[in-house]
Fold this protein.
Amino acid sequence: IIYIIVIWQIMFRFIDRNDELAFLRRQAARERASFVVIYGRRRTGKTELVLRFLREYQGIYYLADKKTYRENLRSFQRVAAEFLGDELFGVAEFSTWFDVFNALLNRVREKIVIVIDEFPYLLEKGVLEEFQKIWDMLLSRRKVMLIIVGSSISMMEKKVLSHSSPLYGRRTGQIQLMPLKFWNIRDFFPNYSFEDRLKVYAVLDGIPYYLLLFSQDLDFKENMLENYLHRLSPLYEDAEVLLRDELREVKRYFSILNAIASGKRNFTEIKNNVNMESNILARYLSILQSIGIVVDDRPVLQQKRVLRYRLLDNYFKFWFRYIYPNKWLIETGNGERLYKIIESTFQTYLGEIFEDVVRDVISHFTRQWDIVGKWWHKGEEIDIVAVNKRKKEALFAEVKWRDRKMGWAEYEELRRKSELVQGLEDYRKKYLLVNKGGFRDEDKLVEESVGLWDLKTLEKLVKGLE
C-alpha cells in the first residue's frame, strides 16, 4: 500500500534502474533494520525509483517541503495516519519527530518501508541529532527500512554522508542516482538515428524528466522549437530554477559557467573572461564542484595540477553555451532565429559530446581499463587514453565528428603523440580511430591492428550496452 502526497505530473517510463531496484530489494530482505540514503541531481528519477520500489512493499512516502519543523511534522503525521487507517493518529499531539516515530512503530507489526523525500528540507537545528536518536533507539531495533532522499548533493554529502554527520556510520547502503547514459536514449526515441539521438543527448543529457518533455513523434528541430526554445518551456527555465535553488549571487556563478561552456577551461582563461580575483574565483569554482555542476579534469597519469574545468552535465553545457547568452531571443519569441544561431556551431559542439560518448563506451564495453581519460601537455593532446596497469596495456584513441575520412596520417600522428605520454614506456600500446565519416587506408590500418570505429560500429557496441 502506498500513500503519497504528490501526483507525478508526467507518465514516467521507468528505464535502466534495475541495479538500483535490485539493491533496494536486497536491503528490504535483511532480517535487521536497513537505512538507505539516495541522492543525486534533480530530475534524475529518485522519486520514481522509490515509488516503483514501494509498489512491492507496504510503506509510507513523505515528501518534505520548505516548511517549519512543526508543519513538516504534522504533514508526515497525516500521511502516517492514512497508512495506518487511523484518523485519531492524524490529530494526536506530537511535539517531536521521535514521538511520532515511536507512536507509529507501536502500531505496526510487519516490516514497513518509510521514505522521506527531499530530506534536506527538514534540516533545522537539532534535526540530524534527533534522527540519530530515532535510528539508534527505535528503528535499528525493529524490522523497518528507512530511506531518505535528497536532491541537494552538497547538503546530502555534508550533512548526511560525511564523517561529521550525526548519522555517519548508521546507513546500510547508499545510491547516488546518476543521469542515464547515451545508450539509454534509444528507449525514449527508438526511431531516431544515431546522430539524432546524439543531438538529444547533447542538449538534454540523460535526465529522464527532460527526455520525456521531447516527443518521439517530432524530429529534433521540431522538438527544439516546440519544447525548448520558447519562454514557457520547462527546459528553458529549469537551469535557472535549479541553480537559484542551490546558490546565492547567481550572476557571478552564471558568468563562470558561461565562460566554461564557451570553451574557457583553465583557471587563467576563466579568470580573464569573468574579470574576478583569483581567491574569489577559486571559492566559486569549489562551490560549483561541491554541487556537482563543474568538475576538474587532469591529464591521464599526470600528477601536476594541470587542471581543466568543464560542466559535468550536457543540459547545463548547452544551456550556458547557447541559451544564456541569447535569452532575449526566446523572451521575444524568436526561437527560430536562435535555432539558426545554434545550427551554425552545433556540429562542433556535437564533436565534444561525441568524444564523451566514445569515452563512456570504452569504459563500459570491456571494463578492462583502470583509467580512461584525456591527455594533454605543452600544446599536444590525445582525445582518449585508457590504461590497464595490471596487464600493462594502454589504448590511445583519436575521435572526430566530421564527414571527411580519417586514415594513415591520423594514425601516425596519434602514434607520435602516444610516445610523449610519460609512464607508459614499457606498456603494450593499442590504437583506435573513431570517425563519423569513416576511413581511408582501411586495409593498411587493419593490417597494423588499428581499431576502426565508424557510426555503424558504434551503433553495434551501443546496442550491446543497452
Observations:
- The chain has 21 helices and 13 strands.
- Residues 96 and 219 are 53 Å apart (CA to CA).
- Residues 1-12 have pLDDT under 50 and may be disordered.
- Residues 182-345 form a domain with the Arc Repressor Mutant, subunit A fold (CATH 1.10.10.10).
